[in-house]
Amino acid sequence: MSLDPERALQQALLTKLRGNGDLTALLGNPPRVYDEPPADLVYPYVSLGRSETRPWGGLDGEGLEHVLNLTVVSVFGGSEEAKAVMALVRLSLHGAALSLDGHRLINLRVTYADLFKAADWRSTYGVLRLRAVTEPLNPPS
Questions:
Q1: DSSP labels for 54-83?
Q2: Which residue in 4, 134, 128 sits closest to 69, CA to CA?
Q3: What is the pLDDT of residues 17-42, one digit of tens each?
Q4: CA distance 26 to 90
Q5: Could you tell me which residues are beta bridge partners of residue 72?
Q6: Please, which residues bridge with residue 103 across strands?
Q7: Rounded Cα–Cα distance for residues 27 and 39 (Å)
């Protein structure tokens, strides 16, 4: 049985980022790319954030549009490290052709990026927003 489209997309995104050798250089080995960050955090890291899905239509009317946020967190002492991680994530995902379990990825784009200091002025946060469109490989008849 194939995964639902949201989990299939999430799994493919995590696999793609964790397999990026350039990200491994910045995020450790194995790379610190999380669905849920652990309690004993090591910086920098990338985590999945907010996600929303809505009907898109498509050829068979079963397509979905997904909007997902990825968060980069750094305590480097400036924005350089967070910007470097964000750039590698963008290069890795924008336009990527990912394989999804039971679904076809029609389109994947990075549509937004924001970088800002946290209230503690120690941490730097980066947010990347992704837009993906998926459809089932075998739509219902």
A1: EEEE-TTS-EEEEEEEEEEEE-SSSSHHHH
A2: 128
A3: 999 999 999 999 999 999 999 999 99
A4: 14
A5: 46, 126
A6: 100, 136
A7: 17
Q: What is the DSSP letter of 123?
A: -
What pTM value is reported for the model? 0.90
Q: Which two tokens stand for residue 37?
A: 């960050």
In angstroms, the CA 116 to CA 98 distance is: 29
Task: Copy the structure tokens of residue 49.
Answer: 């954030």
* Domains in the chain with CATH codes: 5-50+64-104+113-136 (3.30.2000.30)
Residue type, 15: T
Q: What per-residue string of b and e applies to 111-132 under the rule 16 or more CB within 10 Å gives b?
A: eebeeeeeeeeebbebbbbbeb
